[in-house]
Amino acid sequence: MFMKYDLEKLVDANHPLRKALSIIFFEAIAERFKELLKSTGRKGYGVVFGIKCLFLQFFYDLSDRQMEERLRHDMAFKLFCGLTIEEITPDHSYFGRMRLLLGTERIAVIFRAINEKAKGKGIMRGIFTFSDSSAIKTKETTWEERDKAIAEGEEALNNKNVDNYSADKDARFGCKGKNKFWFGYKKHTSVDMGSGLIKEIAVTPANTTDQEGFKHICPDGGMVFADKQYSCKKAQNEMKANNCHSGAILKNNMLQKNKDKDRWLSRMRAPFEGVFSKFMKRARYRGTAKVQMQAFLEAIVFNIKRLVVIDAPPLFATGA
User: Fold this and answer.
1) What are the distances in angstroms from CA 167 to CA 79, 97, 171?
2) Element (H, E) at 47
3) Which residues sit opposite 246 in a β-bridge?
4) CA distance linking residue 67 with residue 260, whole number of Å
5) CA torsion sign, 234 to 240 to 243 to 246?
């Protein structure tokens, strides 16, 4: 006997993916990429479907093959992507093609479109901003690369010669604090302290200092809460240029150091330190542009999860 299954009834009414759909109208976002219609084809899966698939992949931290399996068998995935229960789903190669088609710049457009709508709804106000950085390790083969460098006469593998030997030409050795070393990238992030949403996110090679990377994420106005690295000259000048008030903790040798104030600043920052624990510690891809795309997708997922938690209203009007 043929039975017609209704996904609307099969998927729990309180499923987080349903809530995400109620807040973000992905069709409105896809309207920004009409030029991709020729690439996806009128009879293909379409841009909206591709964007939703990438969202799901990063929402659940899935590989391309894992994503293929979940989309084939998970009813909530099918409902989210607008599929019927009988429709054929793409194989794993589709997701790589979609990432390539969208690229970093278009993923950035999606990230900023959601943020602009959040600002328009008064959710993201930008009065207080928390800024910090975190490490991203690249796919490593550094032992083999080090051995090759030494065999060719180098004293060691370092940031001056690593691009001659590494499979990831953009990655560099980084250090945070006295004993945290890694090879890869650094993620610079600013968070709106009123809503908990990520305002800006930027990826640089790991040897970029926090104060140098701050120019990519500095807000326009308001107060910036940050650690000691942002009390240095470059970061302070960037804040002044953008009409920001500095809430950076001062270094111990600075004349205006006030320990009571620093304790207060630390308490204000503490609830937002957990943002970085939600990010992947390793790069899925190689090269600054692709790791930046990863960072944008992580930020999009983080922000939509946050919007669900705070029970945000729909950000997009139909077709807007």
Assistant:
1) 39, 22, 9
2) helix 47-59
3) 224
4) 50
5) positive
CB 293 within 8 A of CB 105: no
Strands 222-226, 128-137: parallel, antiparallel or unpaired by DSSP? parallel
Please write the tens of the pLDDT for every residue from 124-180: 998 999 999 999 999 777 778 888 888 888 888 889 998 898 889 999 999 887 788
Note the Cα 47 to chain centre separation in Å. Answer: 20
With tokens 């950085």, the residue in question is 133
For residue 62, CA distances in Å to 58, 68, 92, 137 come to: 7, 9, 11, 18
Per DSSP, the three-state class of 136 is strand
Burial of 36 (0-12, 13-18, 19+ CB in 10 A): middle
Cα 212 to its chain centre, rounded Å, is 19
Is the Cβ–Cβ distance between 99 and 37 less than 8 Å? no
CB count in 10 Å sphere of residue 314: 14
Supply the DSSP symbol for 25.
-
pLDDT 10s digits, 216-263: 999 999 999 999 999 999 999 999 999 999 999 999 889 889 999 999
Rounded CA gap, 140 and 130, in Å? 31
Mean pLDDT value across the chain: 90
Q: Where are the alpha helices (DSSP H) in 121-152?
A: 142-151
Percent of the chain exceeding pLDDT 90 equals 69
Rounded to an integer, what distance in angstroms lies between the CA atom of residue 175 and that of residue 183?
9
pTM: predicted TM-score of the whole model, two decimal places: 0.91
CA count, 13 A, side-chain hemisphere, 253: 1
Specify the higher pLDDT residue, 8 or 207.
Answer: 207
